[in-house]
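Give me structure tokens for this 295-residue protein.
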Amino acid sequence: MNMLTRFLRYLQIERNYSVQTIRAYGDDLRQFFAFCGLNPDSDDLSSISHRTIRAWLSSLLSTNISARSVNRKLSSLRCFYRYLLKNKVITVNPLLKVVAPKTTQKLPSFLTKDEASRMIDSIEYPEGFVGLRDLMVMQLFYFTGMRVSEMTTLKLDEVNLRLLTIKVLGKGAKERIVPIHPVLATLLEDYIVQRNKLVSVNQVPYLIVTNKGDKPYQQMLYRIVRKYLSMVTPLEKRSPHVLRHTFATHLLDEGADINAIKELLGHSNLTATQIYTHTGVDKLKKAYKQAHPRA
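Here you go.
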């Protein structure tokens, strides 16, 4: 088994990385070694200097790849070199002298509270199972903040209507418990009855199913979300992630603790959650104006 294959296998078995992440790491590393003209299995990896890595980053940036994408590739390389050090393949890490390109933090797109209310209360969803499912999908995204990949794999037995909770399997196979809003619970109860008439749980264990009762797929959920968001918002981006951003932003606006939001979103660290603090600026200004004696 060659070095790169062993590393990717390590990510799968010991780190529990997703298939998509492992594939991205593999692509990034193959691209890097192609740039260096080296074979990671037969050539001496200690010959790669920090200057070579900087040249690779510069070549990527010169092709109009965003700094964010370049940093993702750099993250793949850092992880690989940590693995090499751990396994004593190299003794010096050249990445210690490499600084990541600066990125401008892109603020997330999210619905206003009025838009979110219209999405739930004002849209006329189709009659029958399809309309009920589509409404349930939209509410499930908004009330739980789930990722589209998480909803696609969500199984019926992971929904507990008695305890009003959902067990979500997130990135790295990490489980988290998300509470269910009573409005969503009522809708879920109605949906599950209709869903089980269409297909049994023994045949398809997933909560969401297609019109024909088949296993769900991400593109289907994207289409559902785009269709209904286009009816309530002028936002150019109309994806499931917009509803995830909306979930987090509205919780923060209503005073939820950011650490609690982190747990609900399934973030591994607080840095990823802190992007939502931009929504609190208006509240801070208002508090400042009300409380400061000179405001």
